[in-house]
Amino acid sequence: MATIDIFDINKNRVGEIEISDTVFNAEVKEYLIHEAVKIQLANRRAGTVAVKNRAAVAVSGKKPFKQKGTGQARQGFKGAPQYYGGGVAFGPQPKTYDLRMNKKARKAALRSILSLLYKENKLTVLNTIDLPGVSTKNFAQVLNGFEANKALIVVDEFNRNLELSARNIRNIKVLNSEGINPFDMMKYQKLILTEASIRKIEGALQS
What is the CATH code for 2-45+100-205? Predict the structure, then answer.
């Protein structure tokens, strides 16, 4: 099995941990990563833009004037697009952008991303992130020690001091291990994991 060093928040090496080869040292399948990110971004689209067509506008259904004898082109409905207040011709209508990826493929995509970050030395493991209090300044110093200017931090459970300390730092995001996703993992340049979160991730992705 592959191993990786464990650090404390002061960047002191405190040991090492064995990590699953099937999760952190697997074959990197770039096509699955691309597919997973594309699907996640597509599903963020609301698709709610819409305009009223001639069937939806609230106007009189009466014919504007008689069919013949006026010298004008025949007209049948004041809700037609050429009239003020009429419906829009060929306007946008609500649309769904939902795409789906089966669970097996999505897990393989997450394993590929974790393996890619591990092979590129962009994965850091901390024994714990135990902050004495809420302090954005102090936590920013911790991140500077790891040269983590743009990082995704994954923890095993809610950490109030960490969440409040990190929320105002640009390009830093905190997630629970259950919330890891392809887009965020590829967006940030470094992945910081707690030792406990690694075990949860392995348990979720090995099957």
Answer: 3.40.1370.10
pLDDT averaged over every residue in the chain: 93
Structure confidence at residue 22 (pLDDT): 93
Q: How far is CA 33 from CA 36, 41, 94, 156, in A?
A: 5, 12, 29, 24
What residue spans in the chain does CATH classification 3.40.1370.10 cover?
Answer: 2-45+100-205
Contact partners, residue 67, CB within 8 Å, separation at least 6? 74
**Quick one: tokens of 140?**
């920013």
Backbone angles phi, psi at 202, to 5 degrees: -60, -40
For the sheet with 123-126, list strands across it: 13-19, 2-7, 123-126, 190-194, 151-155, 172-176
Give phi and psi for 9, each to the nearest 5: -70, -10
Element containing residue 79 per DSSP (H, E): none
This prediction has a pTM of: 0.82
